[in-house]
Specification:
This protein is of the alpha+beta class. The protein has three domains: 142 residues, no CATH class; 79 residues; 129 residues, Heat Shock Protein 90 (2-Layer Sandwich), CATH 3.30.565. The chain is 54% helix and 17% strand. The protein contains nine helices and twelve strands. α4 packs antiparallel against α5 and α8 runs antiparallel to α9.
C-alpha cells in the first residue's frame, strides 16, 4: 500500500497545514486592517479639522493656504495638484485617501463653503507620508509581527504534536495488538490509556467478531475430528463387508460389490479432500510433479463414463512441472471439472489442457444454462473447485463458448 502513514502523522500534517493557512490568513487580515484603520482614521481626523480652517475663506483669504507642514487648503479646484485633479470630479464632496505609484499618500476632504465669491467647493489636502512610517520601519514592524506569528506557530505545533500522539496512541496500541496476535489467537483485546467513545465501540466490535471467529474455528476443528473418525470408521467396515461379498461367485453380487467399492473409494477421497481443505497448510509446502503419467492416473477413473457417454476425449500436457499443492486437491480440481464436462457432453467432445500456468477443460456440451439429463447438475463439484482455488489463491472461471459448450479454466498463482 502506498502513502500509508500512522494516524498521528496524518493528524499532525492536517493540523499543521491548517495552522499555516490560519496564520497566513490572519497575517493578511492584520496587514489589511492596519491599512484600512490608518486610512479611515486619517480621513475622519481631516474631516473634523478641515472645516475649522475653511473659515479662512469666509474671512477673505483665497487661493492655496499652508496651514501646517501636513495640511493645505484650496478654494479652487484648479489649484489642486495634477495627480489629485485627475482623480477627482469638480462636483465631488466628501473624504477620500489616495495612494500613488511613487508610494506617496494623501487624504482629501471637500466641502461647500460660503466665501466672498459665493457658495463654492473648497478642498483640504493632507500629506499622510509626513506622519506614516517609512518603508524600512514598516518592514521591521512586519518582520517582528511575523516572528511573533512563527513563535506562536511553533508553540501550537508542539501542542498539536503532543495531542495527536495522545489521541492516536490507543489506536496504535490496538493496531499493534492485532498485528502481533496470530491467526489462531482470538482472545479478547484490551487497551490502556485514554479511550474515546469511537475507540470503545471499535474495540467492542472487534472483540465480538473475534469471539465469533473463535467459535467458528472451534466448530471447524470439531467437524474435522468428527469427519475424520466418524465417517472413516463406517467406510472401513463397509469395505470389510465388500471383501467378504467378493468371495461369493455370483455375477450380480460381484457387480454390486464393485459399485459399492467404487462409491466407498470416491467417498474416502471426498472426505480426505474436505479435511485437506479445512487444514491450515501455510507452513507446509508440498510439491507435486505434474507429469503425463500423473494426468493419466487421474483420467483413468473416467474411462467408463467416457465410454458410456460416447465422449471423444483429448488430453494434452504441455510439459512436466512442479506445483506447490496437495496432490489430492490438484486431482480433485481436474476430476470435478472433467466430471461436469463429460456428463454435460454426451456424444460430444471434451479436451483437457494442462500447462505450468493453467488448466483448461473445454467441452461442446449443453453449456451452463441447461441441466444434463439424468445428472444432478453442476452440484458441489464446482464449489469444491472454487474453494480449492481460493485456498491456493488461484483464479477460477467458467464461461460458455461462442458456439456451444463451455470452458473451465484455473490459472495458477505461482
Amino acid at each position: 500500500m502506498k502513502n500509508v502513514k500512522p494516524m498521528s502523522s496524518k493528524i499532525i500534517q492536517v493540523y499543521l497545514l491548517g495552522a499555516v493557512v490560519l496564520l497566513a490568513f490572519y497575517g493578511a487580515i492584520f496587514y489589511l486592517t492596519i491599512q484600512y484603520t490608518e486610512n479611515r482614521t486619517s480621513e475622519r481626523r481631516l474631516a473634523l479639522v478641515a472645516p475649522h480652517h475653511f473659515k479662512l475663506f469666509s474671512q477673505g483669504v483665497s487661493g492655496e493656504v499652508q496651514i501646517d507642514p501636513m495640511l493645505k487648503i484650496y478654494d479652487k479646484y484648479d489649484l489642486l495638484p495634477p495627480l489629485i485633479m485627475r482623480r477627482l470630479d469638480k462636483s465631488w464632496q466628501g473624504s477620500i485617501s489616495f495612494h500613488f505609484e511613487d508610494d506617496s499618500e494623501y487624504n482629501v476632504f471637500a466641502q461647500q463653503v460660503l466665501t466672498e465669491k459665493g457658495l463654492t467647493i473648497v478642498y483640504a489636502l493632507e500629506d499622510v507620508d509626513a506622519i506614516e512610517w517609512d518603508d524600512t520601519k514598516f518592514a521591521i514592524f512586519q518582520i517582528v509581527i511575523f516572528g511573533v506569528g512563527l513563535l506562536i506557530y511553533f508553540i501550537a505545533a508542539i501542542f498539536i504534536i503532543k495531542m495527536a500522539k495522545r489521541i492516536s496512541t490507543p489506536f496504535s496500541n490496538l493496531a499493534d495488538k492485532l498485528e502481533r496476535n496470530g491467526n489462531e489467537e482470538y482472545t479478547q483485546l484490551s487497551i490502556d490509556g485514554e479511550l474515546s467513545l469511537e475507540l470503545v465501540q471499535m474495540l467492542t466490535s472487534i472483540n465480538t467478531y473475534r469471539s465469533r471467529i473463535q467459535d467458528a474455528f472451534m466448530r471447524e476443528q470439531a467437524f474435522t475430528r468428527y469427519v475424520s473418525h466418524e465417517l472413516r470408521t463406517p467406510m472401513t467396515i463397509i469395505r470389510g463387508g465388500i471383501s467378504i461379498l467378493r468371495r461369493i461367485e455370483d455375477d450380480k453380487v460381484q457387480k454390486q460389490s464393485s459399485r459399492i467399492d467404487n462409491a466407498v473409494i470416491e467417498m474416502e477421497q471426498l472426505v480426505h479432500t474436505f479435511l485437506l481443505m479445512a487444514r491450515n497448510e501455510d507452513d507446509v509446502l508440498i510439491n507435486v510433479t505434474v507429469s503425463d503419467d500423473f494426468i493419466k492416473e487421474i483420467v483413468k477413473d473416467f474411462e467408463a463414463t467416457i465410454k458410456a457417454n460416447n465422449v471423444v476425449f483429448h488430453q494434452e500436457l504441455q510439459c512436466d512441472f512442479n506445483l506447490s499443492v496437495q496432490p489430492l486437491l490438484f486431482s480433485a480440481v481436474i476430476k470435478n471439472l472433467l466430471k461436469n464436462a463429460i456428463n454435460c457432453s454426451i456424444d460430444g467432445n471434451v479436451s483437457l489442457f494442462v500447462s505450468p500456468q493453467r488448466i483448461d477443460v473445454i467441452d461442446d456440451g449443453i453449456g451452463l444454462e441447461a441441466q444434463p439429463r439424468g445428472y444432478e447438475g453442476f452440484g458441489i463439484g464446482l464449489n469444491i473447485v472454487r474453494d480449492i482455488c481460493k485456498k491456493y489463491q488461484w483464479q477460477f472461471s467458467i464461461n460458455n463458448n461462442v458456439r456451444k459448450g463451455c470452458t473451465a479454466s484455473v490459472i495458477f498463482n505461482k
